[in-house]
Amino acid sequence: MGNDTTRRISMSIKEQYSIKPIPFDDCKEWLLYKHYAHRMCPISFSFGLFDINNIIIGCCVFGGSANRNNVRIGNFDVLELNRLVVNEGLKKNVLSFFVSQCLRQLPIPLIIISYADPGKGHYGYIYQATNWLYFGQGQRKDGGWDSGVTSFIKDNKEYHGKTVSTLIGSASKEEAEKYGFTRLFSKPKHKYIYLLGTKQDKKRMMADIPYHIMPYPKGDNIRYDTNFKLTTQGMLF
Questions:
Q1: Each residue's pLDDT tens digit, 6-57
Q2: What band does 222 get if pLDDT is binned at 50, 70 and 90?
Q3: Does the residue 8 lie in any domain?
């Protein structure tokens, strides 16, 4: 084993990796080609995970939620962790370090919300590892499941409702069927929330959150191929 390899094994995560804000434009390839959603999202804050050689190996972005109920909770602003994607081969504790350090760099007070999609084989283990609060899966007032997401399938390919709307000018079931799209009924997503602020802020936030804390869900995660080679890999200045 070489001296360089031995040295890296003995180094702490903080010594091997760093987290820095990155320009929004430098997130595009990560979101469009490496994240499984393959589309852009609202971005208010964007961060990169860098290795010891100052090479970017991950991207995490926060922005406004597509759910209008998530703009504010009580007197507190809400942001959604919209995308989290890293290169293959990283240890789980590196990913949790990345998320926790991103949260530290956000303004306070602030409520952060994020979702894990069981339809994609996700249960939110990274949120569990970083001590987010879990509030179950979406339900309508009548007790039925509510995925909060419209998706379609055509020629064995799945499309998000926003993509269909861009393609044909509408995401309604009737209009989409005219173009050969079939609406899918997605499983409701797992909802996680993280509170940023003082102890007093968090106490007030908990009083305003209209959900009940629930035990973390468990299941087998599905991993996705994120081996797309980015054109901008170097340190961003």
A1: 445 557 899 999 999 999 888 888 887 776 666 778 899 999 999 999 999 9
A2: low
A3: no
Distances (CA, A) of 175 to 17, 66, 155, 157: 48, 22, 17, 18
Do 75 and 160 fall within a single domain? no
User: Which own/partner pairs from 25-32 qualify as long-range (CB within 8 Å, at least 24 positions apart)?
Assistant: 26/56, 26/232, 26/236, 27/59, 27/61, 27/83, 29/228, 29/230, 29/231, 29/232, 30/58, 30/59, 30/83, 30/85, 30/230, 31/59, 31/61, 31/83, 31/85
129: left (phi > 0), else alpha (psi -120 to 50), else beta?
alpha
Contacts of 34 (CB under 8 A, 6+ apart): 59, 85, 226, 228, 230
Q: How many domains does the chain have?
A: 2
For residues 112 and 195, membership in a common domain is answered with yes
109 part of a folded domain: yes
- What does the radius of gyration of the chain's CA atoms come to, in whole angstroms? 19
**20: which residues sit within 8 A by CB, 6+ positions away?**
47, 48, 50, 236
Within this chain, do residues 51 and 157 fall inside the same structural domain, yes or no? no
Note if the pTM is more than 0.70: yes
| 125 is a domain residue | yes
